Amino acid sequence: MAQQVISSNVGMALPGDDSHNAPWGPGDLLISQALQALDARLNNVEVKPAALAIVSSIGKVMLTKTSAGAYTLPAPLPGLPSVGGYDGQLLNIICISSYAHTVTTPANKINGSKQTITFTAAPGNNVQLEAYQGVWYVTNGLGYALS
Fold first, then answer.
1. What global pTM score does this model have?
2. pLDDT tens digits for 54-96?
């Protein structure tokens, strides 16, 4: 009897059976692999206990340094993910500690005219960035200023 396996983040049923998770049909293995890869990307969490470069381009970054941290964030690669770019990918940066952290990108890589995000000193402050054509665009957030 087939057991339904649900992807952890996407919430869709993965094709397979309870013994080997073998595919049910010709395209099911590809679908299963794609959903599992998407789950892994959506569940990406990068914890930064020290002021270092942020390496993630998707998922969540938790700033946990116990003093004000100066982090760097590279510009996103332009183009669709299917050709190696980051267009459309979301990156959430969240302050866990109560310090005024900064995140700096190369010139004009935030909203096309800014390069630094400065958080006020409160846990829970955050910013959501979406990549498009080599620039991070702020789509949501709390407790930050851009310069």
1. 0.72
2. 888 888 898 989 999 999 999 999 999 888 889 999 999 999 9
Alpha-carbon distance of 100 to 41, in angstroms, equals 28
> Containing domain of residue 108, as a range?
45-146
pLDDT digits (tens, 9 = 90+) for 21-34: 554 566 666 666 66
Residue located via tokens 């919430």 = 11
- Rounded to the nearest 10°, the torsion over CA 48, 110, 92, 117 is 50
16 and 84 assigned to the same domain:
no
* Shared-domain flag, residues 58 and 127: yes
Same domain flag for 64 and 125 = yes
On whether the CB atoms of residues 76 and 131 are closer than 8 A, the answer is yes
Structural domain tally of the chain? Answer: 2
| Residue 125, both tokens | 């402050």
Q: Which helix (H) or strand (E) segment is 42 a member of?
A: helix 28-42
